[in-house]
Design goal:
This protein is an alpha+beta fold. It contains eleven helices and eight strands. A four-stranded mixed beta sheet has the order 1-4-5-8. Strands 2-3-7-6 form a four-stranded antiparallel beta sheet, with no helix packed on it. A hairpin with a 2-residue loop joins strand 2 (159-163) and strand 3 (166-177). Helix 7 packs antiparallel against helix 8 (288-316).
């Protein structure tokens, strides 16, 4: 491909640039020292979340301004128009350097929302939203889930009603990551109740500081509040902030969800590696069962990485991954469960008592957070259905059929 560096050349170039702007990370953190957090979901106060967001934003802006952000985007959006998998090649190099770890709102903005705007936005919307989102001057969260809808996103009840040249939004969204620091919220709303539910949906971008928008943190079992509920009380949204045609919101939503599953295959790998380090440093010999569990987790993590390579290969071939993304999501949640099982076996009561001992009680944040990913990004049941219908070509189950 003309003008596109070979992967090895690109990685060498990326490493050279990173060496000039960041410190190289130690190959292995010394066991028993440093941060022992293995939290699955962020556990920060409002002030801590904003400060961390600012640190990450500074790094992402530097990347973008020096030609290392938006790698697969056209030059008019600040990119280099490289193949999609070059972003993963870059991230592999960046992992060796001490740079801020992106919190969830950054990939949501750059890898979920921005691509949906690229597909569904008008030319004016693309020019207005894409450069600041790719540079992270503006961040976007997902206003998707609702308490009444559960995993059935097409059952949303948040209403959008015409009001002159705009729309009035009224409803309640829940489980929203990053709502406290987001500039925009991508809201899935019902605009027509007299048609089949998938046909009566429209998507809007809502200013999170608009009158009528209220963000309330949700306190989790871990004690943190990384999720929020968002109330929309007669929020006025101009029609120019509608994404996609009226009534076509389900298709817009699917564009975002497809990107979300592509981004979920690497979930939990850092914690799996940390659990295996725990097994290596346990101050007693492992039992036969513990050795078996550790070996099983090692293999699962290896397979998960291989699935990630298959996703990369599909992107390199110019094909949007389908089955690979769903298999990767399912395997990631299974790896997280296996990580929990091994740590529980290794630590026993030390896991439940906050004695201050490094690398023990900290694992409760993994144990309490990991089950959430069976739902996040498309539930395990949804992924099974996708594979059954699109890969195995099994017929859809008739409505009302018992399980």
């Amino acid at each position: 491909m003309s003008g596109i560096p070979e992967p090895a050349e690109f990685r060498a170039e990326a490493r050279h640039w990173l060496t000039g702007v960041a410190k190289e990370r130690a190959a292995h953190q010394e066991w028993g020292h440093g941060d022992d957090s293995v939290a699955v979901f962020e556990n920060r106060t409002d002030a801590e979340e904003r400060a961390q967001t600012d640190r990450i934003r500074d790094w992402e802006r530097l990347r973008y301004d020096q030609g290392w952000g938006a790698l697969d985007w056209p030059p008019e959006y600040g990119g280099r128009e490289l193949p999609s998998y070059y972003e993963q090649l870059y991230r592999a190099e960046e992992a060796s350097f001490d740079v801020p770890r992106r919190t969830e709102i950054f990939p949501v903005t750059q890898q979920l929302v921005a691509p949906a705007i690229r597909v569904w936005g008008t030319q004016e919307q693309k020019q207005r939203w894409l450069p600041p989102m790719l540079r992270t001057d503006e961040l976007a969260c997902q206003l998707f889930s609702e308490t009444e809808a559960g995993s059935d996103l097409a059952a949303v009840r948040t209403r959008a009603v015409r009001d002159g040249d705009g729309w009035r939004l009224r409803g309640h969204k829940i489980w929203t990551s990053g709502a406290r620091v987001a500039t925009w919220g991508v809201a899935v709303c019902r605009t027509d109740s007299d048609v089949p539910k998938h046909a009566g949906i429209t998507v809007f971008l809502v200013r999170m500081d608009a009158p009528g928008v209220t963000v309330r943190p949700i306190r989790q079992m871990t004690g943190g509040s990384s999720f929020n509920e968002v109330y929309l009380d007669d929020v006025l949204v101009p029609d120019t902030d509608r994404l996609g045609p009226v009534g076509e919101g389900w298709r817009v939503t699917l564009t975002v969800l497809a990107a979300e599953r592509l981004d979920s295959g690497g979930l939990g790998l850092d914690n799996a590696d940390r659990a295996l380090d725990l097994a290596r440093h346990l101050p007693r010999p492992l039992t036969g069962g513990e050795r078996q569990q550790a070996a099983d987790l090692f293999v699962r993590a290896l397979v998960q990485r291989l699935i990630g390579l298959r996703v990369t290969a599909a992107l390199a071939a110019g094909r949007e991954p389908g089955a690979e993304a769903s298999v990767g999501k399912l395997h990631a949640t299974a790896t997280m469960r296996a990580t929990t099982d091994l740590v529980q076996q290794l630590l026993g009561p030390r896991l439940a008592a906050d004695t201050g001992e490094w690398g023990t009680f900290a694992w409760t944040e993994h144990l309490l957070g990991a089950p959430g990913y069976r739902i996040a990004g498309g539930s395990d049941e949804i992924q099974h259905t996708i594979l059954a219908e699109r890969v195995l070509r099994l017929p859809k189950e008739p409505k009302g059929a018992s399980s």
